[in-house]
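Ticket #4471: structure output looks truncated?

Reporter: J.K.
Steps to reproduce: submitted the chain below (336 residues) through the standard prediction queue, then opened the result file.
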Amino acid sequence: MASRLRVLILEDEPRDAKLMVHELRRIGFDPEWERVDTEGDYLARLRPDFDIILADGFTPGFDAMRAISLLKARGLDIPVIVVTGSMNDERAVEFMKCGAVDYLLKDRLARLGQAVTQALEKRRLAEEKQRIEEERNRFFTLSLDMMCIAGFDGRFKFLNPAWEVTLGWPVGELLARPYLEFVHPDDHPHTVVEAERLAAGGETTLAFENRYLCRDGGVKWLSWRAVTDPARQLIYGTARDTTQRRQAEAELRASNQTLQSLIQAAPLAVAVTAPDGTVRLWNRAAERMLGWSADDVLGRPTPVTPVGGPAGAVAPHPFPPGHPATGLEARVRTRG
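Returned output as attached by the reporter:
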C-alpha cells in the first residue's frame, strides 16, 4: 500500500513538478501535492501538515534560499529538499548551511525517493527526541523529589525546580558554584568520599544522607540515591528532604526519655509486662518496695501471684498488654 505524502513543490515549470510527483509514485508514495512559483503563493499555501517541501534552487524571483528563510520565520520544521537543474559544490554548501536537508539534480531524480525517505526518518527521529525530552522535563518539573545530574568535576549540570523549592537557592546559582559550597561543612568529608566512590567505579549505586545549607540560613537533611555513568563522567541522583522525619524521630526519642525519667522518678512501683508475661520495665520504686532489682526481673517472667491463685502464676488484669498498670491487682512476691 502506497504511503501518503503531503508535498509542497516550489517550481516554476509545471512539467518538472509532474516529473517529481511521478518519481514519488514510482517508489511507493501516494503524494498529495500543490505547486507554487511565487512568494505570495508559497506563503498562502504553507501549512504545518506538509511532510516535505521540494524547492527549485533557482526559481526566478523566488528560490529555495528564500523559501527556507520564510519557513524558519513561520516557526515550521518541514524538511526542504532542493531539486535544481544545475548545482556546484559551493552553492550546495550554501543550501545545506541555510537549512536544506538534501539536494539533487533534476536529471537524477532516481535518488529522490532515497532523499525523501531519509528526510522523513530524520524528522521522525527529531520529533521523537523532542517528545522524550518534553516528557522528561515535565517529569522533572512536577517531581517533588530533588533530581540532579552532577559531573565528576564537582558541579551540577542539571537541577529540577524542587531544588529551589526545598533550599531556596535559585537553580542558576546552584549551577554556577561547586555543589560542596551548599553542603554543610561537617558533611564535606562524607560527601566527597561518596562522590569519589562513584567516580572510581567501585560502586554503581549509593544511598547516603547529608545536610544542605538553605538560602535562609537553615539546614535540610537530604536522603540520596545516586548512580554513575563513568563513560560520560556523570552522576545521576535523586534526593528527598528528610528533615521533618528526623525532627519527628528526635522529638519521639526525647519524649520517650522524658517518660522514662518520669517513670523512674515516680514514688509508686511501676512495671510493664509483655503479652507473654515477661517484664519490660521495672522502676526504682518497684526495686525499693519489692526488693527485686531491674536486672533481676527484666526479660524474665514477672514475680507476681494472682489474688487467691497459686504462687508463681501470672496475675490476670483488666489492662491491655504493656499497660503501666499491668499487675496492680496482683499480689507481688517480695524478694527475701
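Triage note (M.O.): checked the attachment and the full C-alpha cell line is present. The CA atoms of residues 125 and 131 lie 10 Å apart.
Status: closed, working as intended.
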